[in-house]
């Protein structure tokens, strides 16, 4: 393969592209966050919680929470800025990011999106200012993914004009609720609304959980979830409600209301549609998690790449010098494809944020569902990418990567839950797959085996391929390919795009056919769906793979400088070809690649790793993470200093070994 | 595919097989370890260290450390029992396992294996009794994998009859040394031995590091490595030596000695050969880590499978019942193939322990090298399997899996370093690959690019396939296959064995040819090796895959009951076919499977998952991990109780939803 030489570029040129539309938010955050305490290395749980609360107060002082709230209450109504700020918090102590997300994203977001003017007037300023710390009490011990079946009840009592909030049994206790164990004063409680003896589905109510003096409110029991793998600066807790009475206007009544006499009314017909409309307003949580996962991944990569650039082990017998880790192909393969994909996900994330920000208030259901589906898919793929990459970075730094001072243990532990909170990734991908089958606007949210099963029996299945924002560009690139697959240059972008599109279409078509056929044969709908579950998950994955690639391509198209363009083109090549390599069994098994071309893909990944190796430093510096926030001594020259000292003094002190073979320590 | 029905078996029948030759050690350990404190959920570092030291004292009282030491000093000289005991410690607090490993395996093992009678007489009893807590000070900040190039020096001074131990620069400080930060009194220090102005390579010396009162000894500086990702009950530290003088007999002189006048002598010619002989005596460390990784994996699987058997989420619309997680194909695919491979690795581990235990003292170099290579390979594969499986189990338990009380966070954090200590896995696999190329007895240990590069230029390359212990059985099974590949039943064991053997041979042959060709073309030896590094790693992996499969097959052959045999046969099928599925790109790309057969493999994995699902409980109970050691509430019925309460009371309390679709919480 003939790869044209790639000229060096300044990291700052890349940073400009990465910073994108909300560059001012990112620049501010870099300054502001450097003033917060560094992620702790070894702090007792209570001290960590106190420190995180202080950090939230510092954020309030800097005006941080205002971005996402309406202007009438002192906010800035800038969704993109709010989401970008959350993403930036991902570079610091992730407990701060999560606690801020609970307070302003989930709690504040629910009051804003599900409440009406009364609630806004009464609470939004206090929420922004952290005078009213609150919780988002949705998940129960027995129902996490299947939240439509929550068991907590809110029964309207017309005699007193109150709702009675109650935990009917142990499985209905609220679980893992952030801000509950220590700081929360109020909670948005999701519960089955009962009025006039009828259930109206899940609604949200504001319930005080602590008094002014910090004691649990009457009828409320609070338990601390205790130590977790990570995020120990967040006070997660459990909540039980023993017939707790709240006034009628505690109901966040934008989508459903109860009159004094108990009459229920709603602008949306159907419990299910209403519930999913309510959930849909909370899409920002998933986007924020995906963004923070990206930031954590970048920090980990910066640490591992910097270390790999200075850490030496084993001599090169040709030169007598010890070899820098990043010169080993095996080490390049650990870090560089992950770095390439991190860029791709960054651009996909920005596209998602932009789409949400620019969404018209009169957007149709279909556009809304598509956005929700994309947010779910990118959240799943970005958080799994984080889990895998942070793990790889830890291993790539050996023993040094295991020391808390070098940050990777904390990043790993903190991000680990990202794959299962704000929607379990496996469940989310099923949501995505379902959205890809036609007719999806009606049943988008019906998830799990049940929803899918009903869906496949109800619908005429077919598939559509939704294009991302860069529609025109993608078509142009695909149409530019005139050669046969086998003859096309492996670095031809149009071929990449075509290959990804073709894979997605094939996987979806065969899935639709398979489900339809099984349905026609009269099989049990649960069994049909369940047997195809691996196929369903694959469909979602390859869809998101295409979305990410198209975002990457669109970002390169925005580059103005030829040098930056060229570097990103090679990075995108590595992203694409390592993705293809990871899925070679599919491409071979479906006749998309010959065995000769499959081997060429593997060789090309190796060549691209070698080609990009001199640019690895630039690519991680471009994230512009301040050194004070990276923290890790191994990333900040400590290792280089030691190695320099060793090479200039130590090595010469010893007589040369006659036999300089290398070994492994037990 | 037609899978014959598998009858239920009692877990105890499987336990008998799993417990194997050292069943008495395992039974004892289950009782003894239940008396130790449980792995802590949230203990400050210093308290955890104190607790772990107490646990070591309790082990002393129970006679635990005696198994591995010579009878003359009160030991039992039972290597297999000692290794099995370490494996069992893997079910408890892994800090105890690692600290015990440092004290009795590494420190005590080095004194025994590298020292002579003087040292044995003087120290072994005190080491066994923990009266002399010690360290194994090999790794340095600058040299971890490449320990032959350590920079610490031990210079003999004939004027005083002493060695002067010295840390010449910062990169030569001893790093991550267990027992150093708090408890160690003495260290086996690995250093370049200098006498008469000549270097004699790396040797080990006993150096006191603390006084009776616990102060650092004169000239010794000690620093605490501080908090780590896990294993915080182990006090890892750094050591610097400033011209520390120790008497001549501090040298562990079995393989190299210095006379009073400074004359050096050794029974082994050549610094390199001597050093690797010394390292070879320490093989038990790697085997112990692999064993403990297996135990931790089993605990994680037991927790995740028990939870998946009772945890319900989403309704089955056909029945109206909420579905148990383990009934979902996606969930089965997360846990069951991992469980199958855990069995395979268990049997491979036992074979390894048995081989080491039964090794004749006059075993030739070749047998010794082969054993070391196998230990290295199984350590790498078993620890990566642990890292991946524990991660999967954590995710499979969702938020509950993130709570420290449910053990998975601790297991994950503690085992994480297993992939990079006692030999970095990537480096170890290179050692294995090299051992597989002929002529390997001469250069086995020459590792990294340098060793490999010299090796490939020096040697005529070829490949040999070493058979595991079950040679006759394997041949018989392979020869029993008379059909063509395409027509052979997918569950035919002989076909599996042939396929694995053929893959290994092909990967090795092509690797050998590739290296030879590049060498003939005169390429830079470092570059040759480096460009083939992914191929090298693959060769090692597929070799170990075969070793594990053959051990699995041999274990099934030892079964006496037909029901146990049948169950293990299906489990082995799942292990094999999911391994093939993970490597489908290779089998397709090399014409070993047609696309139709590749698809059949995927279907078969799905079918085997469904088939084995009713046996999942049995398969994890068979590990016979006492509940008191599992600890996790979600594995001990707490979740079942909650779900029972919910189904019998809660669900009926609510009016049924008209629309029972399911959702996902943000």
Automatic annotation (TrEMBL), chains A, B:
Transcription in keyword set: no
Domain Acyl-CoA oxidase/dehydrogenase middle residues, every copy: 135-244
Organism of origin: Actinokineospora alba
Family recorded in the similarity comment: Belongs to the acyl-CoA oxidase family.
Domain Acyl-CoA oxidase C-alpha1 residue range list: 280-437
GO BP of this protein: fatty acid beta-oxidation using acyl-CoA oxidase; lipid homeostasis
Localization (cell): Peroxisome
Protein name, as recorded: acyl-CoA oxidase
Pfam families: ACOX, ACOX_C_alpha1, Acyl-CoA_dh_M, Acyl-CoA_dh_N
């Amino acid at each position: 393969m003939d790869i044209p030489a790639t000229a060096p570029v300044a990291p700052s040129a890349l940073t400009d592209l990465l910073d994108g539309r909300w560059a001012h938010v990112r620049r501010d955050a870099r300054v502001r966050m450097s003033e917060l305490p560094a992620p702790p290395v070894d702090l007792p749980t209570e001290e960590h919680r106190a420190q995180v609360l202080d950090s939230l107060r510092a954020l309030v002082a800097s005006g941080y929470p205002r971005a996402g709230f309406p202007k009438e209450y002192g906010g800035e109504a800038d969704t993109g800025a709010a989401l970008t700020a959350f993403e930036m918090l991902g570079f610091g102590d992730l407990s701060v990011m999560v606690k801020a997300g609970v307070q302003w994203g989930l709690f504040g977001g629910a009051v804003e999106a599900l409440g009406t003017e009364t609630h806004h007037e009464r609470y939004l300023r206090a929420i922004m200012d952290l005078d009213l710390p609150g919780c988002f009490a949705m998940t129960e011990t027995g129902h996490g993914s299947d939240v439509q079946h929550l068991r907590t009840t809110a029964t309207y009592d017309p005699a007193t004009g109150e709702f009675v909030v109650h935990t009917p049994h142990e499985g209905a206790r609220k679980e893992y609720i952030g801000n509950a164990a220590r700081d929360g004063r109020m909670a948005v409680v999701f519960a089955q609304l009962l009025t006039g003896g009828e259930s109206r589905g899940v609604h949200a109510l504001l319930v005080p959980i602590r008094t002014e003096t910090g004691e649990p409110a009457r009828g409320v029991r609070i338990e601390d979830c205790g130590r977790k793998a990570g995020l120990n600066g967040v006070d997660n807790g459990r909540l039980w409600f023993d017939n707790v009475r709240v006034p009628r206007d505690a109901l966040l009544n934008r989508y459903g209301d109860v009159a004094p006499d108990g009459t229920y009314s709603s602008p949306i017909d159907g419990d299910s549609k209403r519930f999913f409309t309510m959930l849909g307003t909370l899409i920002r949580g998933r986007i924020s998690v995906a963004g923070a996962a990206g930031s954590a991944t970048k920090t980990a990569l910066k640490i591992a790449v910097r270390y790999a650039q200075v850490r030496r082990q084993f001599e090169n017998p040709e030169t007598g010098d010890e070899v820098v880790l990043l010169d080993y192909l095996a080490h390049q393969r650990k870090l560089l494809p992950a770095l390439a994909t991190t860029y791709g996900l960054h651009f996909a994330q920005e596209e998602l944020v932009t789409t949400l920000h620019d969404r018209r208030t009169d957007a149709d259901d279909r556009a809304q569902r598509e956005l929700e589906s994309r947010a779910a898919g990118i959240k799943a793929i970005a958080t799994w990418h984080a889990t895998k990459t942070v793990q790889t970075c830890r291993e790539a730094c050996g023993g040094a990567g295991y020391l808390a001072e070098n940050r990777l243990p904390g990043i790993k532990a903190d991000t680990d839950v990202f794959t299962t909170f704000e929607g379990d990734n496996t469940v989310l991908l099923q949501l995505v797959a379902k959205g890809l089958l036609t007719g999806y606007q009606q049943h988008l949210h019906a998830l799990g085996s049940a929803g899918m099963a009903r869906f496949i029996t109800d619908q005429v299945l077919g598939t559509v391929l939704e294009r991302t924002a860069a529609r025109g560009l993608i078509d142009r690139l695909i149409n530019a390919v005139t050669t046969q697959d086998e003859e096309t240059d492996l670095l031809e972008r149009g071929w990449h795009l075509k290959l990804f599109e073709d894979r997605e279409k094939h996987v979806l078509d065969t899935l639709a056919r398979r489900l339809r056929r099984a349905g026609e044969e009269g099989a049990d709908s649960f069994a049909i769906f369940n047997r195809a579950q691996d196929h369903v998950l694959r469909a979602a994955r390859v869809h998101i793979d295409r979305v990410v690639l198209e975002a990457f391509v669109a970002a390169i198209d925005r580059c103005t400088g030829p040098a930056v363009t060229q570097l990103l083109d090679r990075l995108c090549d590595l992203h694409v070809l390592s993705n293809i390599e990871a899925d070679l069994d599919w491409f071979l098994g479906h006749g998309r690649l010959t065995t000769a071309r499959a081997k060429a893909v593997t060789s090309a990944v190796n060549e691209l790793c070698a080609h990009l190796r001199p640019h690895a430093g630039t690519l991680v510096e471009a994230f512009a993470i301040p050194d004070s926030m990276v923290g890790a001594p191994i990333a900040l020259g400590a290792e280089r200093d030691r190695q320099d000292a060793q090479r200039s003094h130590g090595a010469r002190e010893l007589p040369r070994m006659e036999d300089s073979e290398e070994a492994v320590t037990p």
